[in-house]
Amino acid sequence: MEYLVCRLLVLVFAASSGLVYKSYDALLIGGNLSIQKLIDQNIENEVEKFDVNTENCKMPQLRVMSLRQRPRAPEICTAKHPRLIVSKWNPQRQQYQLKIQQEVAAQMSGEEKPIVECSYRVIDHGRLRQPAMFRDEHLVPKHVQGMRLQCALRSNRSYAMHARHVSEDLSFVQPKEELPRLSNRQPSVLLLGIDSMSRGNLRLVLPNVSHFLAGRQWHEMRGFNTVGDNKLMDCPDRLSFVLQDFKLSGYVTAMSEDRPEKGMCQRHSVDHYLRPLAMPKLRRCLRKRRGMEQTLDYCAQLIERYVRGSQPFFGFFWIHAEASQPDELLFDYLNRFEVLGLYEEAIVVLFSDNGMRFGNLIKFRDDQLEERQPMLFVTLPKWFRQRNPGFSRALQLNRHRLSSPYDLKMTLKHVASLHVYPEFPRSCSRCQSLFYALPKNRSCYDAGIRPHWCTCEAYRTLPLSDNIQTMSHFVIQRINQYLSDLSLLNRCSKLRLSGIRGAQRKERSPQDEPNMIFYRLQLEALPNKLVFEATVSFNELTQLMDTDIWEISRKSSIDLAASCIGHQKASVFCVCHNRITYN
């Protein structure tokens, strides 16, 4: 007889404070065997593998588990959505044209020859201008960079109530004129970022993309370690993320993101910028897919306009792989980029800023690796490899050496300066171009990676104790002090510790200061049952503990609870007084 699958929750109350220690047992199957035991047994029988295995860094390989919790049922969307209106480039007129696809109109309306009436509204700095009617083969004015299309499909003009209405957005990479030519051939550069995608989860969620990246001279940096929560992608870093370096070097620059509701940054001084408008009338899953398609379409347009020309481009595109069937969609575009000649002319970087920080994946044994091991793939065009053979050798050598987003940034700066400084400086204090061999015995400290984010060093689980409870209270006190220093407690609720999920202690390493011990804690706080992970240092000699606010990360989903403030880091800790749902 099979028993119901359930989760055992063990509550241990500390008499002194009423604090709840929470210990999560495994999922029971048939009353005898658990998923966690199966996983643990499988791991014990498997030789532990390392992506980096040096004296100063032993980075475990993130396992792709075959046994996982059942994820939330995905929203069902049609895999492909035929478009009623498409844009085509007219090489004679050097303009885009709008094409009404009659076969799609017939499919949508159920009529053999429906009447199609369309208008468009120019998108200007996020605002919609007055509508203008257009017909098939309409030439798009050269100054228009985006538009929202509205079409009505009907079988008879007199029956307007029977019309079917279609709304779509189009964006255009309008080529720049009279650009100065560079003195010698330089590679274009395309950065394609995927939000919250670890290199282990890539193989599970995007298997076709993973297979595509297994060939074509792609170099995977297996030692790529994050440096913090979205640290690579927050506004201050991204504003200076070498865009200006490439612009000053004569490159055409472009940028786009697929989540307009996030509004990560405002428009920068780039030549081509796309920020799709929200389409609230679409179902949530369709909005995600349309946003991803628009960004990748815009990327394809950039390639079409510039990749075969004399002017190199630098493109930075950011997507979220949350759309319906993202693997199929991204795989199709990567192959389309190949047809357009991208990989023959450009350095292409496919990367992420971190792994998944919330949801089912972080509940497993390797959750700390999942969050901290993003992906990084780099490919160089053949002519560039032949001109710089040492760069390919260095990338191959660096595959299993510790690297960070700081190294990626330095590598891009290296590319931007090639036509001015062929012998680029090999390193800064905490970063180095990946076109040079990284130090074999590099540590997280050498790479500028804080202890909280480092996956080079082992931690062992500790039983919950009074000392752990004291440290946990200290972390919550540190958060509240941070909010107070920013004068935000008049808008944000003061947090209080409600539970401790677990504690770990870092094994000592040669790089540690004498008498210094590092602890990693998972805490719950009220209101709204927030979950945090914090790294606390403890000096055995002075008996003092400390934690940096950047060593505290959020493990529960960040929703609208912090909508009353605009501070990016503080939003991780803020629960607005009017957003309290559980206290």
TrEMBL record:
GO terms for cellular component: extracellular space. Transmembrane segments: none annotated. InterPro entries: Alkaline_phosphatase_core_sf (IPR017850), DUF229 (IPR004245). It comes from the Eukaryota. Pfam families: DUF229. SUPFAM superfamilies: Alkaline phosphatase-like. This is Uncharacterized protein.
